[in-house]
Write a structure and sequence with these properties.
Radius of gyration: 22 Å
Order of helices and strands: HHHHHH
CATH architecture: Orthogonal Bundle
Number of helices: 6
Helix content: 55-70%
CATH class: Mainly Alpha
Oligomer: single chain
Number of strands: 0
């Protein structure tokens, strides 16, 4: 057993180094394939990416400076998958890019919330102006 232990450790450590990321082209082909396995992978990958984006935005990026994706309250899984498919079909030049980046980009095109930070700053400016006006009237 001791003789095989270093080999086992090497395999466990080296395995991720040889991993390959799925591309937008491969994910698009999978999503267009109507087999149950392909649909399960397609929906699982894309919905996981959506959940990861929301988690990051809500937990890590509390100032909303990096992730500009604001999903509506009642968006369906099918709608999210259809958005990626439509985006990938329009952006053929990035089909060899990693799928996670493509999925995130497709979300940001459809559900961009870039005005949210501006709205937040406008509200803060209004509050400051109200405070100044209140001080002036006293």
């Amino acid at each position: 057993m001791k003789k095989y232990f270093p080999f086992l450790i090497f395999c466990l450590v080296a395995h991720p180094l040889f991993g390959k990321s799925i591309t937008n082209q491969e994910l698009l082909a999978t999503c267009k394939d109507k087999s149950v396995e392909s649909q399960n992978f397609c929906y699982g990958f894309i919905i996981s990416a959506a959940n990861a984006a929301q988690f990051y935005r809500n937990i890590v990026d509390v100032e909303h400076e990096f992730i500009k994706i604001c999903f509506p309250e009642h968006v369906s899984n099918k709608e999210i998958v259809d958005i990626f498919i439509a985006w990938a079909e329009k952006n053929l030049s990035v089909l060899q890019s990693p799928a996670f980046v493509g999925v995130s980009t497709s979300f940001s095109k459809k559900y961009s919330c870039s005005g949210e930070k501006e709205d937040k700053e406008d509200k803060e400016d209004k509050k400051e102006n109200q405070l100044e006006n209140t001080k002036d009237s006293l």
